[in-house]
Design brief:
By secondary structure, this protein is α+β, with helices and mostly antiparallel strands. The protein has one domain. The protein is built from one helix and two strands. A hairpin with a 7-residue loop joins β1 and β2. The longest helix is centred in the first third of the chain and has 37 residues.
């Protein structure tokens, strides 16, 4: 094997290893974020009772009011 070929092979190997490391880190980070956002329950005592309703009428100002259900 020529010395130049050995150096080229090492560079390719290094590029492949760095690419795989970067891809693995990125995938792990994205999975952690998606897992936390989508699969972790809300930090509210009763999240199914949280509702927010608003209406829009072009002639009137926008009105927003929270709505809670009593059990």
């Amino acid at each position: 094997m020529r010395p130049a070929h050995a150096i080229e092979t090492q560079r390719v190997t290094l590029a492949v290893v760095l690419t795989l490391a970067l891809a693995t880190g990125t995938t792990t980070t994205l999975f952690s974020i998606v897992s936390k956002v989508l699969f972790t329950p809300f930090a509210f005592e009763a999240p199914e009772t949280i509702v927010f309703i608003w209406s829009r009428n072009e002639g009137l100002p926008r009105v927003r009011a929270p709505l809670t259900f009593t059990e």
